[in-house]
Amino acid sequence: MPGHHDTAGAAMPTYVGMPAFPDAARAAVRDTQLRRNLAHATTTIRAKRITAVGELADWAELRETGKQIKDHTIEHLGHYLRLLEEQVTARGGTVHWARDAAEANQVVTDLIKATGETEVVKVKSMATQEIGLNEALDAAGIHAYETDLAELIVQLGGDRPSHILVPAIHRNRAEIREIFRREMPGAPEDLTDDPARLAEAARGHLRERFLAAKVAVSGANFAVAETGSLVVVESEGNGRMCLTLPETLISVMGIEKVLPTWRDLEVFLQLLPRSSTAERMNPYTSVWSGATEGQTFHLVLVDNGRTATRDDEVGRQALRCIRCSACLNVCPVYQRAGGHAYGSPYPGPIGAILSPQLRGAGSPVDDSLPYASTLCGACFEACPVAIDIPEVLVHLRSRAVHRRTERAAMRFAAWTLRSPTRLAFGQRLAGTAGRVLGRRGHIGRLPGPMARWTDTRDAPVPPTETFRDWWNRR
């Protein structure tokens, strides 16, 4: 595992250098313990979600409303982001803009350094995983303590998250007990694998971190533009501690998380808990608007490929995602391969369409992700904001095919141009073919992928004598 560490408090391994999905999945499916852990967890969550969603007679209407709100916001994203900035600033907060991961990490690092602190507590955040914030802080001599139980398990184990909602879903209770006993300072000698005892040990470990921390870093599930309010939902209470106790709060948020109004938020506070934790509502819903009394607040808005994704008429629907993980829990590929095989903080079906767009295709991992699916459609049926993941997968596959065709064409052109003999033969062949295809002084339609050229412009018939032939004759 590239960058793997086994020491307590080590930086989380990055996804750089991960193999393409087929190679990573091939290794993962041979791990029988991993497959048992995943099958048990996803089956349990899936069954509970079906019950929770079935309680609402208007679920289909809620789903469609959520889709329309997201599409409207993405279409007018610039307007709502400006409004959000105005409202946060008016309420005493400071807004920072980051074009990419490097800029976001630098902003957060500089803000923490300005406080003089070298330790921070963190609320679970997909955005900070996406930009590799923990690793960037570690390189700057700042240690980030994850306070979410599952994130803590992953961090202490020198591991990577493998699920959006339950990062340690690939670990069973016995494995977690061994990680705690080996890596957690002050872990009880008689610690068992009883969930209550494990949670108690984690609380004891984190309590002093909460009380001593001067700086906290969070993400945001949503932001309400009309009031400049940020929203974090969670199940353990660790988020509430991080958001309220420290003197400085830094929230890192992808620009697509903004919602226009409080009425819009109502829809998503029904969709998200039932789709993710199968609860009627989240146990802790924290909302704050700008800086609160006794606390300095900074909001870092991150693009990191989202604007480019928004420009794709088909792929942009991935920006509707509310990170509920419902698509992971119904995916037969994820259930067998696990999250690490996707080589991204975003695993499963949503990761297969989001990661290649945010990171930009070109690496073996990102080129392979659109093929990490059977196209069965279960993810689309489960998605609470109706992202047609199979449609986007097919769209991204076609783009990958075009890129491969393009690369093959460039290699063939280079091979041809390196030899005067091959170039001359190719010119004569192209001229002959053009004259065969030409009618009334121009070529009506070229064959294969070259047809796109003649569909939009006239192509003249090549002359009977090439410049090379004319030169040799003269």
From TrEMBL:
Question: What sections of the protein cross the membrane?
Answer: none
Keyword Metal-binding assigned: yes
Task: State the coiled-coil residue ranges.
Answer: none
Instruction: Give yes or no: UniProt keyword 4Fe-4S.
Output: yes
Please, which domain of life does this record's source organism belong to? Bacteria
Keyword annotations from UniProtKB, A to Z:
4Fe-4S, Electron transport, Iron, Iron-sulfur, Metal-binding, Repeat, Transport
A Gene Ontology biological process in which this protein takes part is: lactate metabolic process
The protein's matches in Gene3D superfamilies, at most eight in alphabetical order, are given as:
Alpha-helical ferredoxin, NagB/RpiA/CoA transferase-like
* PROSITE patterns (alphabetical): 4FE4S_FER_1 (PS00198)
In alphabetical order, the GO MF annotations are: 4 iron, 4 sulfur cluster binding; metal ion binding
Start and end residues of each Lactate utilization protein B C-terminal domain: 400-474
Where does the record place the 4Fe-4S ferredoxin-type domain?
A: 318-387
The LUD domain sits at 83-293
Q: What is this protein called?
A: Iron-sulfur cluster-binding protein
